[in-house]
Amino acid sequence: VVNEGDTVKVKLMGFDDRGKVRLSMKVVDQETGEEIAQEEGSDDRAERSDRGDRGDRGDRGDRGGERKGRARRPRKEKVSD
Questions:
Q1: Tens digits of per-residue pLDDT, 2-25?
Q2: What is the distance of C-alpha 29 from the center of its chain?
Q3: For residues 46 and 30, is the Cβ–Cβ distance under 8 A?
Q4: Rg for the chain (alpha carbons), in Å?
């Protein structure tokens, strides 16, 4: 877990089509700063294609928000002694 203010070593993997910076901590030894050799054929997210191979995802249905007419249950009040 990385917290705000932590200093970490990263490798610049590139830029996406919107100009967003792509960084990776996984390919850098955090103690030495040296790049870690990747095994050939390893599944590295930074080297994936544009994900155009996913095909039609279809209707993803309701993603939250309205509860289809049902109201939320009221919170129970704490009773103190």
A1: 999 999 999 999 999 999 999 999
A2: 21
A3: no
A4: 22
Short-list 15, 3, 44, 4, CA closest to 27: 44
Beta strand 21-24 with 11-15 is: antiparallel
Determine contact, residues 46/24, Cβ cutoff 8 Å. Answer: yes
| Pair of tokens at residue 19 | 């100009």
DSSP string, the chain: ---TT-----EEEEE-TT--EEEESTTB-TTT-PBPPPPTT---GGG---SGGG---------SS--TTPPPPPPPPP---
Amino acid sitting at position 65: G
Is the pTM here over 0.70, yes or no? no
The two tokens of residue 78 are 């704490």
- Token pair recorded at residue 69: 């007419």
